[in-house]
Amino acid sequence: MSPVIPIRSEPSAGCTDVQPLVQRGQREVFCGLTGIIWLHRKIQDAFFLVVGSRTCAHLIQSAAGVMIFAEPRFGTAIIDERDLAGLADVHTELDRVVEQLLARRPDIRLLFLVGSCPSEVIKLDLSRAAERQNQRHHPAVRVLNYSGSGIETTFTQGEDACLAALVPGLPATPAAHTSPDLMVVGTLADVVEDQLRGLLQRMGLTVSFFPPRRSQDMPAVGANTRFLLAQPFLADTARALQARGAQHLPAPFPLGVEGTTAWLQAAATAFGVMPEVFEQATQAARQRAEKSLGAARQRLQGQRIFFFPDSQLEIPLARFVHRELGMELVEVGTPYLHRQHMAPELAWLPAGTRISEGQDVDLQLDRCLADAPDIVVCGLGLANPLEAQGITTKWAIELVFTPIQGYEQAADLAGLFSRPLKRRDKLAA
């Protein structure tokens, strides 16, 4: 059996003080509405009503892969020519659509009015619409709004905006409740949530997850709340929770064996879990995960990888592929660099790693082609042009849509990087 990778505790600044390459120009980004695809699966009694164009509707339908006769928990209130020309009152039309929706779907308990590029361009005040609808339908249905616009955002920020909109309505912890509580923040696949809950419970910890699977199970928050981020793109949500008195537990993100162990250790340390209890709770899963990485490590060792900015997962992913799979980092691009949340990850990157923030896509493409990496992680719009240049690619969005957190998913995460190279080898044979 392969030995478990230890948490490296030697003092090292890594890339903590890195000065990223910052460029501003044309960007390749995916729409923030895409977050609805995983959010609507998570919060099972919520509905996401996008106020946008037919293009918005086609995007969500295509991204979700839902057939036309299905009954998903998202839809689009389409802004048409009559609305744009002022021949119809947009707020009146939106009220009518909401009334029809709630009459048809009595199972809805939480309704999000989701802004889009078109609704923001015409300055449609969805906060006022949500407040009006909430007064009409509460407490049977709670109505909130957030922006999923692709203007000046990256696509994972749709989840951040959604969760941040939920935080003000979270119940407060009772005054008599003084013992600390643990909250995991960020949308996770149900199977991953169950695995992480099981590991934490074996340490004797009780944990709540935000968002929950049902809107009626929203966790309480207060000065005794300690929270771990499960996703690296939740800056606004974290600030909103801290404004409610909650305390963030800094940790690497739970990607791979090392990241998951350190993430769990942050909770264990904060709640005083004894080292032997932690070891007993995590040892078996750690050993299985480490053994499962062997085949991918053999294929990826020494391969050079280039990350285009896309989801804000890039820095934790770069740490994983370098430290656990032996890959060489050519460039790690990220849409935004949140130094506080990324500090543990940056400390684990090799000193001198080229990190870029933001994008001028033409200049970054020039660097990529000059560096000639073995594999490039990028958005859908860049993959085919790069493949035409003979460069192997991995779609960045797969790393968001696929369950990759935790010990049991470590091999699946590694496989997302090794499979494109295996495919290239077979085509070349």
Any overview of this molecule?
This protein is α/β, with parallel strands linked by helices and 429 residues long. 44% of the residues lie in helices and 16% in strands. It has a six-stranded parallel β-sheet, with helices on both faces. A four-stranded parallel β-sheet has the order 3-2-4-5, sandwiched between helices. It has a four-stranded parallel β-sheet with strand order 7-6-8-9, with helices on both faces. β2, α2 and β3 form a beta-alpha-beta unit. α7 (157-166) packs parallel to α9, α10 runs antiparallel to α11 and α12 (294-300) packs across α18. The two termini are 32 Å apart.
Key structural traits:
429 residues; alpha/beta; six-stranded parallel β-sheet; globular
Short description:
By secondary structure, the chain is an alpha/beta fold.
Itemize the secondary structure elements and their pairings.
Blueprint: E1 21-24, H1 36-42, E2 46-52, H2 54-64, E3 74-78, H3 81-84, H4 90-104, E4 110-115, H5 117-121, H6 126-137, E5 142-147, H7 157-166, E6 181-185, H8 190-202, E7 207-210, E8 225-229, H9 235-243, E9 247-248, H10 256-270, H11 275-292, H12 294-300, E10 304-307, H13 314-323, E11 328-334, H14 339-347, E12 355-359, H15 361-371, E13 375-378, H16 380-388, E14 392-395, H17 398-401, H18 410-428
Parallel strand pairs: 1-12, 2-3, 2-4, 4-5, 6-7, 6-8, 8-9, 10-11, 10-13, 11-12, 13-14
Helix pairs in contact: 7-9, 10-11, 12-18
